[in-house]
Amino acid sequence: MEFLDYPVFGFFVVFIATLFIFGEVMVRVKGVFGIIGIVIMAIYFSYHLTAADSLWVVVLYLIGLSLIIFDGKVTTDGTIAAIGILFMVLGLALPAPGITYGVLVAMAFILAAPASYLFTKVFPKRNMWDKMLLKDKLSSEHGYNSMNETYQDLVGKTGLTKTPFRPIGTIEVDGKLYSATADNQWLKEDTKVKVISVDGTRIVVVPEQ
After folding, report:
1. Spacing of C-alpha 66 from chain mean position
2. pTM summary value
3. Bridge-based pairing state of the strands 168-173 and 158-161
4. Mind listing the pLDDT tens digit for each residue in 42-67?
5. Partners of residue 160 on adjacent β-strands
6. Phi first, then psi: what are they for 89, rounded to 5°?
7. Where are the alpha helices (DSSP H) in the chain?
8. Fewest CB atoms within 10 A around its CB: which of 26, 32, 121, 192?
């Protein structure tokens, strides 16, 4: 395995191994990707690690992988996963025989990890990443109501300014108070206005003709 003395081959070995290891985390393939990735990664580690440093470097790498899986299953906010990625990168780069080699294997990991998402286009994906990837929809079917939908109902209605507009102030429509803007117009208090548009929570009014 002398080819692993060359940084470019180290890059491809780590890239392929990472691709399959993260592919196992991304999709349901009954452990096939995991086995392939672990075998290839074991070749990388066994060639570069000495007896003195083999244990703690491999442990560092495995802790990083465990943190990523834990984040995907429990916390789902990406913070712990980011720490895990850092541990895995260090676990790969530290045994490298030189700085250039270490940078290349770190790049291989950083490129392969997100690339493994492409497996989800072909194989059934694991649902543990849905929250981290913001796939949960805050829809009315799940009990959520958008404030924007309520504000959209104001378009075309008339109201009364409750404060001077310079050019932002408060209006009253149907007995409720809203913050609104008259764009570049200044309006006096108790002026009749009409809601002409809503963008998110930004309500635009003009004096009623």
Report:
1. 19
2. 0.58
3. antiparallel
4. 988 888 877 656 678 888 899 998 98
5. 172, 192
6. -60, -45
7. 7-26, 32-48, 54-70, 79-93, 99-115, 147-152
8. 121
